[in-house]
Design a protein that fits this description.
645 residues; alpha/beta; 20% strand
Length: 645
């Protein structure tokens, strides 16, 4: 342990001991956000809950330099107002307290080195940072955190319960790096994977746990970033942070992972899903919750091609990854009512809390196929070329195999981009990609042998336009000519507990392409042969329809053909198309959740704006312009609240 760490450790022990004595009379029975609070949250902290009833929670992001402008003098009005609002409006709240570049200037006067980086001149960059390992910095930073905890402990138990979690920000914003860019003076360098930075982070984690976690009596969960349960490519990236969290935060914790809710077919999706999904949906052992955010990605060119459609598939993609909290920027919330894509928010709310199959009320399977060029088993290098992210020719060859089903790549240059650049600069829909999710998107409902029994479809009805239906992006269908005439579905094994008849409702979203076409739905009723629940005949109106059936004697214990709970079957030689299947436990709830009938063209940002010069120059771009907009709204709201007092 270096000199800085030893001095800080001794100081921290004293702070924690004092804090624990002060908080010893507190006993609040809350551990982390409850699944009932999972869903869409207000990232801007400024929206009227009555106008946006789908909001489940909000944030309170206050910085050290706002609270302690002078040494030892604290202004808690920001935190007090946020907690009071959450308590009165019966919504959840998460808080974060930024330090790092938001350190008060007086701290530097106490001897903390001021660090300048080569990114200072980039748009939205911070002017300077503290040297985090300085004993003076740790002394005052730890004192600040301790005072935050002491102040929270002064709230009533009911108000403390309104605080769902704390997002831990050890460095520069929630990206968990020390600096944006490299220090001009190399002596202050703290690479994100360095031992020194890891030691500082773990020390800060431990302090948060002592001050806000179970040991303090506050029982407020932590949300962490940059941690993972296993190494990648033989590199020990953030495994130590994961080991610390699973050892010390036994009641669970949150992870920050935002890319999947900002779009679909983004590079690296597979790893982002598979790494954490076992801890998020039907978890065994440690249980996580996962926060993501929608920043200004929705104003970029790709999103503006069809805003409603992109929000919908962003929500679907996030749910498939086990996302819990979708933190949405105020700009997106405002236009959602005008443009009608708030349906995506309600859909996300419906499924975000469906974690445990035994108690889940709903399950879905959104039919989809992604052409993952990194998969050498499905697409051999001998046939399609070398599997590298930059090999556009390989991706084009793979896509050509599915062109007859509507697959295409509208922006070939974006095929080789990382997901951050994709979000900002992509200008078309791509059906191939690198490590994109290849299968259906689902939560507790799965299709059996999808490629062997049905065909994948893209761009149903023709090229995607600003007014295309949200369902037209991806689908699956029958292909009678090749014997693909059935889609078999099964629920998670825990969803149906026994062989007794149950009431289950099923919704099937399908495209009525051909007049007179027929399909039916058969289900497992515990008998030798499956029973037919409904038969549907097409009118050929070229529209998407929702067919709903309530089954009174559903057994759903995988007793049907191929172990299915129910099957969508072709009833003639015409091919039908389907996009979404949902199952609800019990009678179908009313009113039915439906998207708007007509998908209106968006009038806001027109073609969208790409990243500006230097905007994406540093890792972990937060799209500063949009974030500044949210913060300006927060400041205005706070001023208004003060005037109204």
């Amino acid at each position: 342990m270096n000199k800085y760490s030893l001095e800080s450790f001794n100081s921290t022990k004293k702070i924690i001991l004092i804090a624990l004595i002060a908080f010893s009379n507190i006993a609040v029975s809350q551990v982390g956000p409850q699944p009932s609070s999972f869903g869409v949250w207000d990232r801007g902290e400024a929206m009227n809950i009555k106008e946006y009833p789908f909001l489940k929670g909000t944030s309170c992001d206050f910085s050290w330099d706002e609270v302690e402008k002078s040494p030892g003098e604290y202004d808690w009005s920001i935190l007090d107002n946020a907690v009071e609002r959450a308590y009165k409006e019966k919504i959840s709240l998460y808080i974060s307290f930024a330090a790092g570049p938001k350190t008060p200037e007086w701290v530097y006067e106490k001897g903390v080195p001021k660090v300048i980086t080569n990114a200072t001149k980039n748009p939205g960059a911070f002017d300077h940072y503290p040297y985090y390992l300085s004993p003076e910095y740790k002394k005052y930073y730890h004192r600040f955190l301790t005072e935050v905890a002491k102040h929270i402990s002064s709230f009533s138990k009911e108000k403390i319960r309104a605080i769902s979690f704390i997002q831990v920000k050890t460095g520069c914003t929630g990206d968990e790096c020390a600096y944006k860019g490299e220090p001009v003076d190399a002596i202050y360098s703290l690479p994100v994977k360095s031992a020194k930075w890891r030691e500082f982070r773990l020390e800060t984690f431990a302090l948060h746990d002592q001050l806000f976690g179970k040991k303090s009596g506050l029982n407020i969960s932590m949300l962490l970033n940059n941690l993972e349960p296993q190494s990648k490519d033989g590199k020990n990236n953030f495994v130590q942070e994961w080991d610390w969290a699973t050892k010390n935060l036994k009641d669970g914790f949150g992870i920050k992972n935002g890319a999947l809710s900002r779009g679909h077919h983004l590079s690296g999706e597979i790893d982002a899903v598979n790494t954490f999904l076992p801890y998020l949906v039907d978890p065994k052992g440690v249980t996580l919750f996962r926060r993501s955010e929608m920043d200004q990605t929705w104003t970029r060119p790709w999103y503006q091609l069809n805003v409603q459609l992109n929000f919908y598939w962003g929500a679907i993609n996030a749910l498939n990854a086990g996302q819990s909290v979708w933190d949405v920027t105020s700009g997106a919330l405002k236009v959602s009512k005008e443009q009608g894509f708030d349906y995506s928010f309600y859909f996300f709310n419906k499924y975000a809390g469906q974690i445990h199959p035994e108690t889940a009320t709903d399950a879905f399977c959104a039919l989809h196929k992604g052409l993952n060029a990194a998969d050498t088993k499905a697409y051999s290098e001998d046939t399609y070329g070398k599997a590298t992210h930059g090999n556009i020719e390989r991706m084009e060859k793979i896509t050509a195999e599915y062109a007859k089903y509507g697959a295409a790549n509208d922006d070939k240059n974006a095929l080789k981009m990382g997901q951050v650049k994709q979000r900002g600069n992509q200008v078309g829909f791509n059906d191939a990609g690198w490590e994109i999710w290849p299968d259906n998107y689902s939560r507790l409902l799965y299709q059996i042998e999808p490629d062997a029994t049905s065909i994948p479809l893209w761009r149903v009805g023709g090229p995607i336009t600003t007014t295309s239906s949200i369902y037209s992006r991806f689908a699956r269908g029958f292909e009678h000519a090749t014997g693909k005439d059935a889609m078999y579905f099964k629920l998670h094994e825990g969803f149906s507990k026994d062989n007794k008849p149950k009431v289950m409702s099923i919704t099937v979203v399908w495209y009525d392409a051909t007049e007179g076409s027929k399909w039916k739905l058969d289900y497992d009723a515990g008998t030798k042969t499956m029973k037919t629940a409904m038969t549907v005949t097409g009118k050929g109106d070229k529209k998407w329809h929702h067919e709903v059936i309530t089954i009174k004697d559903a057994v759903f214990k995988n007793g049907g053909t191929k172990g299915a709970d129910f099957v969508v079957l072709n009833a003639d030689d015409k091919d039908d198309i389907f996009s979404l299947v949902e199952v609800h436990r019990g009678e179908q709830e009313l009113p039915l959740l439906r998207p708007q009938e007509e998908n209106r063209a968006f009038k806001g940002s027109a073609k969208g704006t790409k990243y500006g010069k230097g905007e994406n120059a540093v890792e972990g771009d937060k799209e500063k312009k949009g974030k500044r907009g949210d913060k300006e709204e927060k400041r205005e709201k706070r001023k208004k609240d003060k005037r109204n007092k």
